[in-house]
Write a structure and sequence with these properties.
five-stranded antiparallel sheet; 311 residues; mainly beta
């Protein structure tokens, strides 16, 4: 990781913290504590972002070029690799989403009428960001906002449905679930489809609010992670794995190897599957990337919650 010991670097980091605070002067409780630890970002090709302890790392795919944010979580790198969205928890327990420009080092908070919204997901072309949001009716919903920080909308705002872990099906539709049903919404905020998850993937899986469902680029496959009946020694709670469903044939293939617990997956619009997983004794998680055929490569030896840019 790049670190800097010069006075100039220290001044630059301090200025970034001041910039974040100035952007939040209308909401003192939502001040960002995320700080960029690099001062020279030119000529870098960022392709991956992930969690490493209490910081976020953005890196090239070969991990040779890196920058990091402290005091942030839920990394979401934009499809072009130029921006990074992340969640900040403040001292009162509220969560807000910020976006950093990886070239000019600017940071801004999304203009959302809530004090609890988190886990950004960029649309396939990077024009919008989706996220989970706790609304005024004490329900979890999907929020969407344009990348220029305008056009904020809560999808399906009038219903009493709680939905979790939104992902983009394509540029005009999103999916989220309520543990039992998989919902498809359009970007105008309307519910367009509801499918029983058990009818899609069977009844042998356990679905938690943090599990994600992604459609492949051609819409023929559903990539997801879920709890299973494995009982590996040393793991508390259900084991999870990554799977691929062929929607037409209903055939499900396990993507991640047995013995690897996979609590998080992310699929790019060009069908590369990033996931974090740990093996016995389940104390350290690695980051992997796979294609739809199950060709897996280890990318990072220590990290969680990866997201990737397009090639």
């Amino acid at each position: 990781m790049i670190t800097f010991k010069s006075r100039f670097a220290a001044v630059t980091i301090f200025c970034l913290a001041i910039f974040a605070s100035c952007n939040s002067n209308k909401n003192e409780e939502s001040k960002s504590t995320a700080m960029l630890d690099s001062i020279s970002l030119s000529s870098k090709n960022f392709a991956l972002a992930y969690q490493d302890g209490e910081k976020i790392v953005a890196t090239s795919i070969d991990t040779m070029k890196q920058i990091s944010f402290g005091g942030a979580m839920d990394p979401a790198i934009s499809p072009d690799g130029n921006k990074l969205a992340y969640t900040v928890n403040n001292t009162t327990g509220n969560r807000t989403i910020w976006v950093a420009d990886l070239e000019n080092k600017s940071q801004l908070q999304l203009h959302v009428n809530s004090s609890n919204y988190y886990q950004a997901m960029w649309s396939p072309n990077g024009n919008a960001i989706a996220f989970n949001i706790f609304n005024s009716k004490n329900l979890w919903k999907v929020g969407v906002i344009k990348a220029d920080n305008t056009g904020y909308l809560i999808l399906d705002s009038a219903s009493a449905i709680n939905v979790y872990s939104p992902t983009w099906k394509n540029e005009k539709e999103l999916v989220a679930h309520d543990l039992k049903n998989l919902y498809t919404f359009n970007v105008d905020g309307k519910l367009v489809e509801s499918r029983v998850i058990a009818d899609l993937i069977g009844k042998d899986f356990m679905i938690a609010s943090g599990n994600h469902f992604f459609y492949s680029e051609d819409g023929t496959k559903l990539i997801f992670n879920a709890g299973n009946s494995d009982a590996p020694d040393g793991l508390t709670g259900p084991s999870e794995a990554a799977y691929i469903l062929n929607i037409a044939s209903k055939k499900i293939e396990r993507l991640s190897p047995k013995g690897v617990n996979v609590p998080y997956i992310f699929v790019t619009a060009d069908d590369r599957i990033f996931y974090s997983g740990s093996e016995k004794p389940y104390t350290q998680s690695k980051i992997y990337v796979s294609d739809l055929k199950g060709n897996i490569k280890t990318l990072v030896d220590k990290g969680l919650n990866p997201t990737g840019a397009l090639k």
